[in-house]
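new request in #modeling-help
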Amino acid sequence: MNGRRSFLRGFFAVLLSGGAIEGVLKLIPSKAYGKEVARTGKWYGYGVSVDKCIGCARCMDACKNENNVPREPFFVRTWVERYITRKNGQTIVKAIAPGDEAMPEAASDRTILRSFFVPKLCNQCANPPCVQVCPVGATFQTADGVVLVNEKTCIGCRYCIQACPYGARYLHPVSHTADKCTFCYHRISQGQLPACVEVCPTQTRIFGDLNAAASPMSRFLRMNKIHTLKPGLNTEPKVFYANLDGEVR
Amino acid sequence: MNPEIIRTLQELLPQIQGYIYPNEIEIHWGLLIVVYPYITGVVAGAFILASLVKVFNVKEVQPLYRLSLLTALAYLLVAPMALVSHLGHPGRFYEILLTPQTSSAMAMFGFVYAWYLMAVLLLEIWFVHRTDMIDMAENSTGATRLLYRALSLFSKDKGERAVAFDHKALKVITIVGIPSAFLLHGYVGFIFGSIKANPWWSSVLIPIVFLFSAIVSGIALVVLLYMIITPLTGGKINMKCVDKAVDFLFYAVIVDFSLEMVDFIHRVYQSEEEIKILSEMVMNKLFASLIIIQVLLGMLVPLLLISLTKIFKKRFGLNEDMRKMVYFISVILIQFGIFATRWNVVIGGQMFSKSFRGLTTYKMEFGGIEGLLYAIALLALPVVILFVLLKVLPPWKELREEGEAGTEALGGAGM
């Protein structure tokens, strides 16, 4: 009797202490206590030269065509924001749309301090919060670092949409599953460029393997001062911006 | 494609203030997700009230014991309905249980829920009613007899040892149940609190605030139900019991209010980059639901009313009807307040842009799955389930603890 009792006591002690600690450690993402493993193979990234963007919105058009994104303005995988900062410090932001009328000439407006366009898309975070929260693992990160959604298993709970700090996700009105930029995974796996990069007339958008020694992408990272969006959230975006203004969030 | 969605979003376009990301115009978690934490909150709160009797030996609220357990069960059964029906693919909900992702707070819901339902609530209710069910099986015939035999899992032992075991089991279940109830609703808070992308939600305090607001809503709802059901079934409200329950309610509201104030002061004092857009949202979009309903009507007025009964003890002590009225008004106000709390968390968290530059609007639908009618139906359903549960497992004897032999028979027949 005593033997059994002490065995049980020991058994539960192990369960409660060791087991519990291990369980907690498992919950902590590996990033919190381990160094990031050096990556081999492809690790895709994306570059945006803010100064080169002219706001023509061809990327938005190309994306909608290529990826069957609904035409309505409420569902986008990539978009372009126009920033106008006035001399009084006030900043006005507007998302441009493919059919928009031509923008009024800013140079003659003496109240404008500076004005620029910023293309946005899914940041394909190395540490993606959307993947962390997906209850069924329908959102996942591929070995080459692209975050994708499996529309066959996505249950449409929209938790990932809430978890994305960049507003990159939407619920597809036809499939009723989460949808977002895939870096045109069907194209890049064939060695082609994403549609938005392909059509950009000013080479604002650059795409490539971050591990490649010589490529437009590595040259972009070498030649520019780089910033990412909301770095404080530790999402480690893989969309890198050159000459990004502090007003951009 | 559903043209309805497009039309709704089109209507929202002119109502956007400032700049929002293009994908942010649609509020993804609507009324159903407001209903969900409200309902789980009631479950946790009602269970905590029940455990006051069993664990903390608060004898005065014994009449509420069975009622609060059955209330918790009735609401718990409805909780997942709100969740499942808001999914884009309700038919795939089982994926959460079959292929859960352990890093997701939401994936754990199935397990927390199953644990709470099976290991805590059903077990406790079964042990509480076991001997009664045996009695009822003995005193009935036909289908009813079979029903109670089945409900009691064909146990027949009413001996001293069996009853003693029932009591022992109940004690253990309740002790396990309290942390489980905390887990159930604290976890709901964590679903929101762990979203670092959203500064309105992302707070360590959120699970705790959820917990205390749960306790508030649960106790208030059981007291409200007791005050309605008892006279309807011909009983007399036991004021000692209500006084005590309202006492606990009063302290819970104070703790809840303090926690929310701490959160508020902390945010304003730290004044991080999102403070401008959040204060704009509170003043423009949430003024009625947050300042008026949640804080003023849902907390301060009930606190004031209940304190009045404490300050003017003599006057209120003599006048039971007056006290009853004050309590009745307070618990109703508290229900609205807590519902508004859930609204402000869920809807408020999606009304401002994550660019911190603008606000969108939530347009509630009337019909349809995300509509008002369905939400009202979901809120009414637990009451219907409770009605059935009260028929099957009548708590009348306990509700009228104070030896009202005359009304007991009448009451049993009345409901």
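bot summary: Residues 160-193 of chain B form the longest helix (34 residues).
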